[in-house]
Amino acid sequence: MLIFGLMGQVAWVVENMYFNVFIYKMFNASAADISAMVMASAVTAALTTIVMGAVSDKVGKRKAFMSFGYIIWGISIISFAYIKSIFLTIVMDCVMTYFGSTANDAAYNAWLTDRGDSTNRGRIEGVNSMMPLVAILVVFGGFMSFDLNTSHAWTVIYYIIGIATTLIGVAGWFLIEDAPDLKPVSEGLGATLAYSFRPSVAKSNSRLYLTLLNFAIFGISIQIFMPYLIIYYEQTLGIENYVLIFAPAIIVSAAITVFYGRLYDCKGFMKSILPVCAMLLAGYTILYFTHALAAVQAFIGSLLMMTGYLSGMSVFGAMIRDNIPEGRSGQFQGVRIIGQVFIPGLIGPAVGARILRNADVIVNDDGTTSFLPGPVIWAAAFVVIIILLIALLVTMRGSTDNRQH
Questions:
Q1: If you placed Cys at 54, which of 63, 148, 193, 340 could pair as Cys (CB 3.0 to 4.6 Å)?
Q2: In degrees rounded to 5, what are phi and psi of residue 157?
């Protein structure tokens, strides 16, 4: 879990945060370009996870999809060292997402569900949800000395991450064991693909689908600002060494997230998700009022925002896994990814691009111009969390998980 979870998140950090910086710095991408790339990747991730999650259930295997997927995933990352346009970056991002979603979103997440049980979901998700923050720390810390304004730096980054991801895939053949009770499902592939989309299945698992709905709203809030986060710190706030602020916030947030998952094990869903919303609202408010070079204020806001983000991922992830029908974890990775990635990946960046359409611009050294994301991204994210609170109180009030507390 630690090895595959961390390396998978390192690869996703490069895609979700560094690709945006890559096309911003190398090709002077607009907010609309960044939004288009995120949206295309979200669609690819959702479709891939729906199909490949069901296929892994049908054949009764996770290990092969994880290991082989990571190998090809790494090779596809290396290919970005040779891309010279925004269009090709978006196309290859979708190709890379196909292999990454097969290996991680579909197979790894189904495997994680197979290997856990109702007594340890919160602890597992606490550790698993910490991985994105640790991955950000690894990537930012590892590449903070690189000059991201040069193509050579990007070539080295893509080779390092690509080779590391491929090696993890090779190691998986020796490290991974499928759950002993994992068996191929008896239905045909078509029925397996359609299972989680049947109205009767949704009705009999209403708690799961309501959780996914609220997870989607949570994700929209995150995706409004996340594609522009590095650009915001570096360009808008003028904090060149933003890693020195971001890294301590990440470390503290990661530590809190590990233990926060246990709150879900003890208190259930609602008592653990409401504090998450409070942390996000506080973090967004502080970041909205953070002025250029206000390092301490940026640290506090980032700490609250990142803690709320990762703790929320932990709580939602545990609730979802607890309510997935036994023996069908692969088939439900598709609807999970729709709530976690597809809907947020379509709506969040579109909202971000819309509110930044009249953003301030700067003139680069070569005479080209680039946009500056403004604090309005935090205001928009704040509003979505208010919507989430209302939705939670309407759809999940009094909700627990499948266990006794």
A1: 193
A2: -60, -50
Report CA 400 to chain centroid distance, whole Å.
25
Collapsed DSSP state (helix, strand, coil) of residue 360: strand
Which residue bears the tokens 């879990």? 1
> Where in the sequence is the domain holding 359, given as residue range(s)?
2-181+198-395
Q: What is the mean pLDDT of the chain?
A: 85
pLDDT of residue 405: 34
* Inside any domain, residue 400: no
Asked, for residue 331, whether it belongs to a domain, the answer is yes
Would you say 165 and 69 are in contact if contact means Cβ atoms under 8 Å apart?
Answer: no
Cβ atoms of 123 and 262 closer than 8 Å: yes
Closest CA to 210 of 44, 404, 398: 398
The mean pLDDT value for 71-83 works out to: 93
Residue 405 included in any domain: no
- Output 114-118 pairs: Cβ under 8 A, ≥24 positions apart: 114/62, 114/178, 114/179, 114/182, 114/329, 115/1, 115/179, 116/321, 118/322, 118/401, 118/402, 118/403
**Which residues is 362 bridged to in the sheet?**
370
Rounded Cα distance between 279 and 258, Å, is 16
- The CATH code of the domain that includes 18 is 1.20.1250.20
pLDDT at position 32: 87
Number of domains, the chain = 1
Q: What's residue 289's pLDDT?
A: 93
Structure confidence by residue, pLDDT tens digits, 172-185: 999 888 888 888 87
> In this structure, are residues 45 and 105 in contact, taking their beta carbons and an 8 Å threshold?
yes
pLDDT at 134 over 90: no
Phi/psi of residue 9, nearest 5 degrees: -70, -35
Is the residue at 188 inside a domain? no
- Rounded to 5 degrees, what are φ and ψ at 20? -60, -45
Which pLDDT tens digit goes with each residue over 228-254?
888 888 888 888 777 777 778 888 887
